[in-house]
Amino acid sequence: MTDNKENIKELDNVVIRFSGDSGDGMQLTGTLFSDTSALLGNDVLTFPDYPAEIRAPQGTIGGVSGFQVHFGQTEVNTPGDYADVLVAMNPAALAANIKWIKRGGTVIIDIDSFTEKNIERAGCVKDPLHQLGFRDYNIVKAPITTLTREALKGLNLDSKSILRSKNMFALGMVYWLFHRPLEFTKKYFEDKFKKIPVIIEANKTVLKAGYYYAETVEALHPSYSVAPAIIEPGTYRNINGNIATSWGLIAAAEKANLPLFLGSYPITPASEILQELSKRKDLGVKTFQAEDEIAGICTAIGASFTGHLAVTSTSGPGLSLKTEAIGLAIIMELPLVIVNVQRGGPSTGLPTKTEQSDLMQALYGRHGESPLVVIAASSPRNCFDYAFEAARIALEHMTPVILLTDGFLANGSEPWRIPDMATLPAIHPPLVEEDAKDYQPYRRLNEDLVRGWAPAGTKGLEHRLGGLEKMAITGSVSYVPENHQVMTYERENKIKQVQRHIPDVKVHGDTSGELLLIGWGGTYGHLYTAYRELKKEGVNLSFVNFNYIKPLPANTHEVLKSFKKLLVCELNLGQFASYLRLNFQDLSFIQYNKIQGLPFSVIELKEQIKKQLEVK
Amino acid sequence: MVETEKLAPKDFKSDQEVRWCAGCGDHAVLSAVHRAMAELGLPKEKYVVISGIGCSSRFPYYMNTYAMHSIHGRAAAIASGVKVANPELSVWMITGDGDSMAIGGNHFIHLMRRNININVILLNNQIYGLTKGQYSPTSLEGQITKTSPYGTVEPPFNPGRLAIGAEGKFFARSLDNNVGLTTSILTEAARFEGTALVEVLQNCVIYNDKAHAFITDKAMKEDRQLIVEHGKPMIYGIERNKGIVIDKLKLKTVTIGENGITEADILVHDAHDPDPTLHLMLVGLTAPEFPVVLGVIRSVEAETYDQKFHQQIAHIQSTSNKKSLQDVLYSGNIWKV
């Protein structure tokens, strides 16, 4: 490999957006780049942006699939607002992403695809290249298709296979630009196409061709270098939110010494949890792909009745369908984890986009007084921790728990320091021993108001559960008015008691001051970055992010009341803000909301915060 | 499953007062279930009874076993979860014609298709009883009910046909007033490995009284019921001289001794035939042209979902080098910092 050290610029962090037709392999291209960067020690966060249609009409804006990689030598918490480098494989990809390119950024296009026909297909009146102010951007018009064909001439491949590898040409170019080695990616080809040597050869050849092409064309000079980040020592791997969720559940089952059962129905963007846990039959995980969302949760309830860590996974519309069964689990006081990977709603809404608009449904979307625990993950990797927490609380407190993640966390990926399983706490479900004397299904065992769990099959503890109101202690059917009130309070207070077993919310910055930036769940990375950057600029603000929603951490009121302004930022119309108002009627909250199916941008958050600080 | 000291039917009764109406057919079915469970000889803790919503779904409260009175239509899904999670349990599902044919129709057909080893007792009274008298998916076309004051305009489901059409492997039919037949069918259903559907034609004294009276009529029942047994000719009638034959792909009733018909001409019941054609024809026979067929009509052995499910997991685990999550965490692309 030729050395290109002479003309290298050091950068702190970089955002690259790979973009092409949904058949162009942009997700893979982006993943390979981010894997290499992570292996080199950069902090990385990635986010795919793909259409809901599997193969939207070729060349149209609706069919554009993108993958954004943000990597740096300092902490990276978002996929980045604007791209330093845009790779656009066709006119539609350029047209769709023009507004996301940083001024002065590099745009690499496959000039071969910029034909009149393709420009028309992209719905553009004129060539989207003309929309770019030429002086503001470094535009690299590479004949990617032609050069890919050229590179593969000798390999006797069909035209389709040749075109399919042109994404590797683009990847090679970007590798050169950022001074990345090709070895990890070559190794990937060797593992992936073990049985088809010609494909390994073709991909390697094209990757190298792109790399050398980049070196040769003047337009790409200088190249850039991003040094490794200072990261806590340990063993790392890349992980996305859905995989982290799946593994967190397995970890909890191991720590509770219980088998894991998932009853689920495929739904975007949650299906990957069902897929991953189905793979984990190699660890004895039981997965049941049900006939619908309702059967998904109902099979899980059945499994919980037999003493399993029972889980159902879904997204918004599926949560709606599971509602009645959640109420059943509440009145039966059986442990159950409901993972809701939020997406844009209502109805089918924006299935592949992210939103935080299921909060109220998670908290209140059931008939009757039906309290349960709601928690939310806030980064792709901590989906592991909060899935574990959801399971811990469900099992130790005999209650359904809704774990909220979202499309952004589910599909976003970042390096994750693999935890030492030995350091995770043991989980102690209140299992009752067989033939225990005088077992009463609804007797409260302790001040947490938890009842004893006697899984079906346990000798001597036969009992009946059901949806009808239960008599306190005995659990037989009761229509006694006073008993209903007693039981309603017991269920409510049981959830309140969970507060004693969750950590306080952590304040970033001073514990009192002018403005407290408030978020919950998946917006953490963007809010934290905005907070950090403003702090650096000398702005006086603090930040809290909530992972425990119901119950709220014990110190919540104490934290909130110490600030003059409370700014709640959410990807909905203000559901968490409303919830806080309901809980803390002495405080007033201001809101910033966005509902575009997209994460916040750090820039807009900083503007909002500054604006709020100016208002007296 | 371990056999233990013999339990009596009364051991399966709970201490709860049975609250069905006097004269309701459910009482007899409850008694048959208690008897069948005693007969099967499993310890009490191995039985799990799951119901949905409706009069019949109050059943679990009257059982001294593990049981769950769940939500409308979902018993099949919950029972599936119980059985798949722990195949050592003997799982019984109690449902009605509203619970399983209307709101729970989807779960019902998928339970049949998967062939999970569950015994399903469908108490069919052709009416919604608990909500006080609206028509159900098995109500007869034209039936006058509270929600069909001018008669229904929809044809009913035949539960047996629906089950067999959904790949069901076991179907039997009984009558609430024949506790002996119900008990023996339930015992056979419980011993059958796979989803076993037992339809019990049940009388609702309040909202659909005498719905099955034509069939159960004491004086005429031998002429109006055909109780089939595997390997035996389909002979019925007060004088045991009536039988079923097949003629030009259609079933026909004949009288032995008339028109040269002998016992040898009568169809011999083959419950084990995987081809469902004849079973569907038998299930579809209706009074008054034909006797209503009772007994075990279809019983075809096939691997169950729960067997295959656990065999697959055991096989994958025995061939995998991953023994715990730790092994998964450290597989694939990892790097040290």
Describe the protein in words:
The complex is a heterodimer of chains A (616) and B (337). In chain A, helix 6 (166-177) packs across helix 8, helix 9 (241-256) packs across helix 10 (271-279) and helix 17 (524-536) crosses helix 20. In chain A, the strands form five sheets. Chain A has a seven-stranded mixed beta sheet with strand order 11-10-12-13-15-14-21, sandwiched between helices. A six-stranded mixed beta sheet of chain A has the order 3-4-2-5-6-7, sandwiched between helices. In chain A, helix 2 links the parallel strand 5 and strand 6 (101-110). By secondary structure, chain A is α/β, with parallel strands linked by helices. Chain A folds into three domains: 5-224, Pyruvate-ferredoxin oxidoreductase, PFOR, domain III (Pyruvate-ferredoxin Oxidoreductase, domain 3), CATH 3.40.920.10; 238-423, 3-Layer(aba) Sandwich (Rossmann fold); 507-614, Rossmann fold (3-Layer(aba) Sandwich). Chain B has helices at 26-40, 75-85, 97-103, 105-114, 159-165, 179-191, 213-216, 221-224, 277-284, 305-319, 325-329; strands at residues 47-51, 66-69, 90-96, 118-124, 170-175, 196-201, 225-228, 235-236, 242-247, 250-255, 292-299, 335-336. An eight-stranded mixed beta sheet of chain B has the order 2-1-3-4-6-5-11-7, with helices on both faces. Chain B has a three-stranded antiparallel beta sheet with strand order 8-9-10. Chain B has eleven helices and twelve strands. Chain B starts with 25 loop residues before the first helix and ends with a strand. By secondary structure, chain B is an alpha/beta fold. In chain B, helix 3 crosses helix 4 (105-114). Chain B has a domain at 1-211: Thiamin diphosphate (ThDP)-binding fold, Pyr/PP domains (Rossmann fold, 3-Layer(aba) Sandwich), CATH 3.40.50.970. In chain B, a hairpin with a 2-residue loop joins strand 9 (242-247) and strand 10. Chains A and B meet through helix 1, strand 9, helix 9, helix 11 and helix 12 of A and strand 2, helix 2, helix 4, helix 10 and helix 11 of B. Strand 17 (464-466) of chain A pairs parallel with strand 2 (66-69) of chain B, so a sheet runs across the interface.
